[in-house]
Design a protein that fits this description.
Belongs to the DegT/DnrJ/EryC1 family. This protein is of the alpha/beta class. The chain has 14 helices and 14 strands. Helices cover about 35% and strands about 15% of the residues.
Length: about 400
């Protein structure tokens, strides 16, 4: 059978669902209400940002939330609010988006890039243990692809060494670990509303905090150093204007009502694809961390056999109508981070994953589960083609 990349008929010609999904009536109504009110900024007297932060905090199992302009600034503000700054080190996983590290730099601290678990690709507690120094001030586990990191082990390390824990939950809206929502498991958790995320207003982010004093400090960082409940022109601390707008919150708040249904839909598709891939031995689903009780499935990560030519596979799969993503390069290979002083631990697992893991994007996971057969068929077709393996 001729590959589509060589002129053959593609496995799939139908388009995949677009992201974000169409605006629903509740979003349209609330956005219109905010537009007509003229109360667009977070400090003009509107209530939608406050309602969103309260709802998100409740879903995260904590009492406090701060809505921000984006999750990179959210991570920065959480670190600053927890006392992390110049001279400190923050341990981050090597297999994550660059913002996890650049937020540490923005806070004035040094990112320490540590390896991930060889099975689930989340921050490895063993790697964290090896990376600890007297300067370590915080850990930043990332709930990768919508599944939780190994929070019990990481929180135990943090407690024993007196470290703050900032959860990068940018991809994990609605995920749970041992029946506890992510985001509320550390000292602070940060969600993203960037365009690719499970809830999006184009941009945006939200910080949740379980401790009231930490919340007050984080709030101050995001509100120009003001004290919560203090004077408008009183600035007892240094802070910035990092706030989300009422218009963005109006897009996001109604989304909470449909989030669980969308997570269920993605999980159903992933289960169907896992079943279909059982007939394609060169491809395996990267499992969720032990203890995961709800994977929000922002992405589905797939691991290829070491002999597969991944670059050709990605090109050939796209031609078959099944576009996949190559995923993250290792943070430790980024010269910009090294030039800013990031410290890189030995990361052989990440190096291997960067060459063998591919992603199925969230929009594809929103398709009818029957379409999982198209992905498996395309894999089988491409992998059976002579010359695909090294």
């Amino acid at each position: 059978m001729t590959l589509a990349i060589h002129g053959g008929a593609p496995v799939r010609t139908a388009p995949w669902p677009a992201w974000p999904p169409p605006v629903d009536p509740a979003q349209r109504e609330l956005v219109t209400e905010v537009l007509e009110s003229g109360l667009w900024g977070a400090t003009q007297g509107g209530s939608v940002v406050a309602d969103l932060t309260a709802a998100f905090a409740r879903r995260s199992g904590v009492r406090h939330g701060v809505a921000v302009a984006n999750a990179t600034l959210g991570l920065f503000a959480a670190l600053r609010g927890l006392g992390v700054g110049k001279g400190d080190e923050v341990i981050v996983p090597a297999y994550t988006f660059v913002a996890s590290a650049t937020a540490v730099l923005l806070a004035g601290a040094t990112p320490v890039i540590a390896d991930v678990d060889p099975v689930d690709l989340h921050l490895s507690p063993d790697a964290v243990r090896a990376a600890l120094t007297g300067r370590t001030a915080a850990l930043m586990p990332v709930h990768l692809a919508g599944s939780p990191a190994a929070m019990d082990a990481l929180n135990d390390l943090a407690t024993r060494h007196g470290l703050a824990v900032v959860e990068d939950a940018a991809q994990a809206h609605g995920a749970t670990y041992k029946d506890r929502p992510v985001g509320g498991l550390g000292d602070a958790g940060v969600y993203s509303f960037q365009a690719s995320k499970a809830m999006t207003a184009g941009e945006g982010g939200l910080i949740v905090c379980r401790d009231e004093s930490a919340y007050e400090r984080v709030w101050s960082v995001c509100n120009l150093g003001r004290a919560l409940g203090g004077q408008w022109y009183g600035h007892p601390s240094v802070g910035w204007n990092l706030r989300l707008t009422e218009l963005q919150a109006a897009v996001l708040l109604p989304w909470l009502d449909r989030l669980d249904d969308e997570i269920d839909r993605r999980n159903t598709f992933c289960a169907a694809l896992g079943h279909e891939l059982a007939a394609v031995p060169e491809v395996a689903v990267v499992p969720a961390t032990e203890g995961t009780t709800r994977d929000s499935r922002h992405l589905l990560m797939l691991r290829l056999d070491a002999g597969v030519d991944r670059a050709f596979l990605l090109e050939a799969m796209a031609a078959e109508g099944v576009p996949l993503d190559a995923g993250y390069p290792p943070l430790g290979t980024m010269s910009a981070l090294i030039g800013e002083g990031a410290r890189v631990e030995s990361c052989p697992v990440t190096a291997e994953a960067a060459g063998t893991v591919v992603w199925v994007r969230q929009s594809m996971l929103m398709e009818d589960p029957a379409a999982a057969a198209d992905i498996a068929q395309a894999f089988a077709k491409v992998l059976r083609h002579t010359g695909i393996a090294n």
